[in-house]
């Protein structure tokens, strides 16, 4: 099995679910890191209050989980092409996405309809918000990578025609197993 065949639709679905679960944990963890970083920034508020002011939290949560699912799909696609350890790849992709897109928070500062409300402090020049977002992306990447690796590993191994021969290739790297 080449690393381009990363387990088919079942594995793809596992990566998607892993992304959704990791994003859900991120959203539920926000109140804790808001206290830790002493910053009111909330991704759920940015998403939810961008759509509605009444009942914004469930809307923001759903959008955040959907974004996580899409990120899980992106991880699956990159992993299928590159192979390697999905845990490292998920963390690297999450942090790269954060650093690349954080400058766009200036658009939130300027144009978001709920800017200045609870959960939406100024972001672009806010070091605490940047650190908070870095923590959240790292948490998301670690969780996504661990879940995707754990949930997809049996499917990837079971599709290896050499399974049981003492050779492992499900991570995209061929290595002889000990013993």
Return the structural class.
mainly alpha
What proportion of the residues form beta strands (DSSP E)?
Answer: under 5%
Q: Can you count the helices?
A: 6
> How many β-strands, per DSSP?
2
Blueprint of the fold:
Layout: H1 8-37, H2 43-49, H3 56-82, H4 86-101, H5 105-111, H6 127-158, E1 167-168, E2 175-176
Antiparallel strand pairs: 1-2
Helix pairs in contact: 1-3, 1-6, 2-3, 3-4, 4-6
Written overview of the protein:
The protein has 179 residues and is mainly α. The protein has one domain. The protein has six helices and two strands. The chain has helices at 8-37, 43-49, 56-82, 86-101, 105-111, 127-158; strands spanning 167-168, 175-176. A two-stranded antiparallel ribbon has the order 1-2. A hairpin with a 6-residue loop joins strand 1 (167-168) and strand 2. Helix 1 (8-37) crosses helix 3 and helix 4 (86-101) runs antiparallel to helix 6 (127-158). The protein is globular. The two termini are 22 Å apart. Residues 1-5 and 157-179 have low confidence and may be disordered.
